[in-house]
Amino acid sequence: MKKIPYGISNFSEIIKEDYYFVDKSMYIPKIEEAARFLFFMRPRRFGKSVFVDMLEAYYDIFTKDKFKDLFGSLWIGKNPTPDANRYQVLRLDFSLATASLDKLDDTFNEYCNGCIDAFIKKYKDFYSSFTVESVLETKRAGQKINLIGAAAKAAGNPLYLIIDEYDNFTNVVLSSHGQEVFHRLTHAEGFYRDFFKTLKPAFSRIFMMGVSPVTMDDLTSGYNIAFNISQLAPFNSMLGFSEEELRRMLEYYKEQGALAMDVDEVLDVMRPWYNNYCFSRDCCGEESVYNTTMSLYFLNNLITYGSMPEQMVDSNTRTDYKKLRQLVDIDRGIGGNRRQSIILDIANKEYSDIKLITTFPALAVTDENNFQSLIYYYGMLTMGAPRGMRVRMIIPNQCVRLQYWDYIVGLYQKEHSLNLTRLTNLFDSLAFDGDWEPLMRYLGAEYKKASSVRDAIGGEHNVQGFIKAYLAMCDYHLLCPEIEMGYGYSDFLMIPQLNRFPEARHSYILELKYAKPSSPESEVERLSHEADKQLVRYLSDRKLIPLLQDTTVHPIVLVFHGTSLAVCRQCAL
Prior knowledge:
Layout: H1 11-16, H2 28-34, E1 37-41, H3 48-59, H4 67-71, H5 75-78, E2 88-93, H6 104-122, H7 129-137, H8 141-155, E3 159-164, H9 168-177, H10 179-186, H11 191-197, H12 199-202, E4 205-210, H13 214-220, E5 227-228, H14 243-255, H15 263-274, H16 292-304, H17 317-328, H18 336-349, E6 351-354, H19 368-377, E7 382-387, E8 390-394, H20 398-415, H21 420-433, H22 437-449, H23 451-457, H24 461-471, E9 477-485, E10 488-496, E11 506-515, H25 521-539, H26 544-548, E12 552-561, E13 564-570
Parallel strand pairs: 1-4, 1-5, 2-3, 3-4, 11-12
Antiparallel strand pairs: 6-8, 7-8, 9-10, 10-11, 12-13
């Protein structure tokens, strides 16, 4: 039985050691037809490294005798292009070029030198001994590229450059050391900029992958090094898994006897957590993909160990979230509070209408629209629907949603720390016993104490943000805010994850109302009755039946009067 390739980015290893491989080789002809110099962006954990490893194996002249073994079972093995195994390939992965502030130049140059020296040794038979020796003796990476490019062009040898994580090196500099150091690195005679100047003349084809377009703008003064295919519809599903690809994978393991659950049942569990990414406005609502690493994390537990993971969020994604949090704090004196407010606003509303910026310099990253675009590039938003010149960006799934709420909880915990052990006990009572009131009253009391953070968030969304952030910590339920039902939107729908916790059979619909501190008691009473009417409408919605079947449904009314929880009761049906 094929193994799950969780945590493995080596294409040859996946094929040779019989791991399950989701074939993306049919995109190779599309890449060749698009342009000679290409630039492709996706958030981390979408399988970029495996994909570029496949490209390296496909184009490398030295893997020609291995072509059938590596590609025979894939689409491209049956439909090879004329460029197969035609190139000498230089592969660079800038995530391996550690950015030490005191030795930025040396660190980067040493990494590139190692890769280029390995290249010239590998392909030495195509070059004169003089060229090989000159390359090895030269100390600067850019000069090495110039020597190889000139010799290869004279001999008619085509070169292919593949760069993975092209922006990792500079993103670390930007987030850790600020805009001034980044600007010195990528402008004027910065060594990073100088290196990139040497690439286009030397190589017949270039394929670069990364996360954001920030570095490319700064390096190329107008983005002239490569054609950006990141938002083109034909490449929307080039990385990530479509639901059909996941279904075929699950059906394979079902046939092997390794999957006890029904395929549709597994997809029902995975869909709200890992699906719903879209990267082209032309594909909105029609073609979405699952996050590769998060899906493999889940399937590795399910297939290899026989049960779903205890935590649905892969801990590796936390490191990616920390990088975004660092970007929020870039040169904090310049709009830092506004960027924090943007994150909080998105967490509360679940969307943001933006004009997606495809390229902008690092010095403009503090601009509000640029920063929201950057959030999209980091995978914290995805395309929901076109809106004229703008796009409604949405939070794609529960995994990302939890990262927003973790951010809010972190802000609250800095100012006013809640007893998380007590919260866990209250969550148990909520899920297993239907005893919801102690939890709601505890959160209401704690919200009142958290005045400093509350003021920082501001607006009438502050209560919702607080309640939402802490309810999201309950592992037993999917917290679904703003679900449309009964001609309205419920504030919170808490759906038990029965596939994971079959004993958690209590579900909740919460309607939360807010009255200003200056409002009379009659306003509180009016809002309370209004909440009752809304909950009655929601409970009559047929969409609720499959969501909450086999559970005891609790419709809850919460009314805050200023900072005080004035009403906390079950709806009078």
